[in-house]
Amino acid sequence: MKPDPPAPRWWMWRPGADRAGAARVARGRVRRARLRPVLVPAVPLAGALAVVGPTPWWSVGLAGAPLVLVGLVAALPARVTDWQVAWAASADDVVHPLQFADEAQRRRAGRLCGYFDAVRGPDPGRVAHVEEQLWRALVALRGSLATRSGLAGARNRPGLAAELAEATRELADLDRRVDRFADALRVLAEEADPDLAARALRRVAALDPL
Question: Which of 51, 119, 161, 166 reaches 20 to 30 Å from 184, CA-CA?
């Protein structure tokens, strides 16, 4: 079963990612989850019915009934939600909250996605460029989690002061750049005037979150 993402729910697909494969995986998971409670009792039930049949033909017919039911359940269309598809996708294709054990970074990534979802830019090319920047920022935040965790466990260890200080500076610089990008993205998302929104879009597109 898929775990539910923390609220608020968000995820970000890599621009240009092929979602068809993830959708197939998600549908397969739904079918297996739906079949499991039917298939488990169907097999022993089929065996028991085969024994009680008064004739061989009756035995075959009775034994086949539970298996026919399993087949009917398997034939039902598997409907999946957008979250189920995102959960089934490779980490190379999607970023989602369950990949973030660090709550602060999960919130930071969620804010970025929320701001971008509200963007309605008049320039599709620049919006696509901002989407690429957002993807890079999210991947960088996700990639920084191991370093953050390592720093948290390496405090006050002798001989590592210089390395820890350098890693801390790099993470702080990443956070500043991402937050600056998020602030500009928020202004763009909240701007209602078309002319001002176009200017805000140009400002965001000119930023490098990394």
Answer: 166
Crossing angle for the helix pair 56-75 and 20-52, nearest 10 degrees? 160
- Using DSSP's 3-state secondary structure scheme, residue 5 falls into coil
Diameter of the chain by CA atoms?
84
Q: Which residue has the higher pLDDT, 182 or 38?
A: 182
Query: Can you tell me the distance from the alpha carbon of 161 to that of 170, in angstroms, rounded to the nearest whole number?
Result: 14
One-letter identity of residue 14: R
Q: Cα dihedral angle (153, 154, 155, 156), rounded to 10 degrees? A: 140
Question: Which position has the token pair 């500076």?
Answer: 169
Residue 77: what residue type? P
Residues 108, 180 contacting (CB under 8 angstroms):
no
- Using one digit for the tens of pLDDT, what is the confidence trace for 136-153? 999 999 999 998 888 877
CA proximity to 104, closest of 37, 178, 170:
178
Q: Which amino acid is at 65?
A: A
Nearest to 136 by CA among 101, 103, 174, 165: 174
Tell me whether residue 18 is exposed, middle or buried, using C-beta atoms within 10 angstroms of its C-beta: 0 to 12, 13 to 18, 19 or more. Answer: exposed
Q: Measured between alpha carbons, how far is residue 55 from residues 44, 49, 50, 76, 186 in Å?
A: 19, 11, 9, 32, 74
User: What's the rounded mean pLDDT across residues 34-41?
Assistant: 70
Contact 39, 66 (CB under 8 A): no
